[in-house]
Specification:
Blueprint (H helix, E strand, L loop, with lengths): L9 H4 L3 E4 L4 E10 L4 E7 L2 E6 L5 E5 L4 E4 L7
Parallel strand pairs: 1-6
Antiparallel strand pairs: 1-2, 2-3, 3-4, 5-6
């Protein structure tokens, strides 16, 4: 079914490239972990993995056409 604005199916997000707000490439969204409070994006680049909370304060933009997610990492995740 069609989703409301700002909601996405996981399969639409997996594989998108993830960048910081200052355009630093973090990697590709490899998987999503469902937790009790919010989802967590598992982003991989080569052998490096970063876990990013899927919160409005962190995820600034998702562009399915450009296959890109823009995030502002909380302090300590960089």
């Amino acid at each position: 079914p069609e989703l409301e604005d700002g909601s996405y199916y996981w399969h639409d997000l997996i594989g998108l490239e993830v960048f910081t707000t200052d355009n630093k490439y973090l990697g590709r969204l490899h998987s999503i972990i469902q937790t009790g409070s919010n989802d967590v994006y598992v982003v991989r680049k080569d052998k490096h993995e970063i876990l990013i909370p899927a919160l409005e304060s962190v995820v600034h933009a998702i562009d399915l056409e450009k296959k890109r997610i823009q995030v502002e990492l909380p302090e300590g995740l960089e």
